[in-house]
Amino acid sequence: MVSLDKITEIAQHCAGLAIEPGDSVIDATAGNGFDTMFLADRVGAEGKVYAFDVQDQALQITAAKLQKAGFSHRVKLIHSGHERMADFTSDQVSVVMYNLGYLPGGNKEIITKSSTSIESLEQALNLLKNDGVITIVLYPGHEEGYLESKEIIKYSADLVSNDYLVYRLQVVNRFGSPPELVVIKKSFS
Prior knowledge:
Elements: H1 7-16, E1 24-27, H2 34-43, E2 48-53, H3 56-69, E3 75-79, H4 85-88, E4 93-99, H5 114-127, E5 128-138, H6 143-157, E6 164-170, E7 180-186
Parallel strand pairs: 1-2, 1-4, 2-3, 4-5
Antiparallel strand pairs: 5-7, 6-7
């Protein structure tokens, strides 16, 4: 059951709707490995997950979780920014997941930026299969996160509506700037 209390679980639920066993998928921001583990489980033994992160610490955390679960062979960990995803795969993917911002428990000075996140999104859209899904968890609660959220929402809203459905989920009755979710579904008419 999906908890509506955690936007990351809602993102996983939306992504899971588009994944079939054997699919190729991308975790654009491996972080602490939660989405990578989710994706590795969903694609099954014949599937492939490409997981990107610029921080070696994040990849080590993710690798340990994958090893413990027996999923290491399903995942290619890539020490690179997500804006280079097309350099590492030409596979058509059913899902691309983003959890932007900084690594929880890591260096808060190392954060995603709108320019590279948008560049990555452009590549993700080209790699995405028809009926594929991109999930983007945004964190507008800090200065760079606010700018990145604003740019990604604008970019997503400008996608051609005959080709993409774009959803935005946000909590509207909480103080501050809680995380938001953008879901893009490739849906050619």
